[in-house]
Design brief:
The protein is α/β, with parallel strands linked by helices. The protein has one domain (3-258): TIM Barrel (Alpha-Beta Barrel). The chain has nine helices and eight strands. Strands 1-2-3-4-5-6-7-8 form an eight-stranded parallel β-sheet. Helix 2 runs parallel beside helix 3 (75-90), helix 3 (75-90) runs parallel beside helix 4 and helix 8 (229-240) packs across helix 9 (244-258).
Length: 262
């Protein structure tokens, strides 16, 4: 049985000391493909470096809504400079999407308009490069959906660590996007997990760890790694009354499809 972790951050400083050993361990655990996601220009560069030196690792490049503060002082000029560099990085054959990009009104309420500008510009970049997008949305569901409905997102994409909001999930699927579930679906206090999982057809589900964050039950509170993606697969299997292998196979196929790895 093979597993595909569709979103992890081995470019995070929490893996600085033992990244190579962890990657060896997760591959041995059956995670034979994973995506290391960028969230800023520096982290995107590191993601590409990791992907280039590990056959089973792929990368995304982008500027997340939580990482635009350093370009806001001279927004137009700085954004253009960074997006030009993101574009060059994304031409690497191991880069499979533009992301993570999107809106976050939980951590940042004062720069909503700038977030929207950066999100839209990166959708345009994804279209230019014929890549899907990886979406981060937190407490910004209406505006996220509004941008996706009014923008042409040619290669669609993924709601990464998708909030367990049924309206978002249903609308996202209508728009042609994949829904990626992370550790929160396993949390004991997660109220909407079962309904959220049931709302997504098996051919639209992905699984991820968002390592090193959001470790699932029973690993909650520890540094997360891609080997734990099996717990998300098991939760989905339990809810949908399927075998673990069915979910593993389906999510692997789905990830390969959206990331164009077939």
């Amino acid at each position: 049985m093979e597993l595909f972790d569709s979103h992890a951050h081995y470019n995070d400083e929490k893996f600085n000391e033992d990244k190579e050993e962890v990657l060896k361990q997760v591959y041995k655990a059956g995670v034979t493909k994973l995506v290391c996601a960028g969230y800023s220009l520096p982290s995107s560069k590191i993601a590409v470096e990791i992907a280039n030196t590990h056959d089973f690792v792929y990368a995304t490049c982008g500027i997340s809504p939580n990482d635009i503060s350093d370009i806001e002082e001279n927004m137009s000029q700085n954004l253009e400079l960074q997006l030009n560099q993101i574009e060059e990085l994304a031409k690497n054959k191991k880069v499979v999407a533009i992301g993570e990009i999107g809106l976050d009104y939980y951590w940042n309420k004062e720069n909503k308009e700038n977030q929207k500008i950066v999100f839209k510009k990166q959708i345009e970049l994804a279209n230019k490069l014929s890549l899907p997008i990886v979406i981060h949305t937190r407490e910004a569901i209406f505006d996220t959906l509004e941008i996706l409905k009014t923008s042409s997102v040619i290669n669609k994409g993924i709601f990464h660590c998708c909030p367990l909001n049924l309206d978002l999930i249903k609308e996202g699927i209508k728009l042609g996007f994949y829904i990626s579930f992370a550790g929160p679906i396993t949390f004991k206090n997660s109220k909407n997990a079962v309904d959220a999982i049931n709302a997504v057809p098996l051919d639209k589900i992905l699984i991820e760890t968002d390592s090193p964050y959001l470790a699932p039950e029973p690993k909650r509170g520890t540094r997360n790694n891609s080997a734990n993606v099996i717990y998300m697969a098991q939760k989905i299997a339990d809810v949908k009354n399927l075998k673990l292998e069915q979910v593993a196979n389906a999510t692997y196929q789905n990830a390969q499809t959206i990331f164009k790895l077939l």
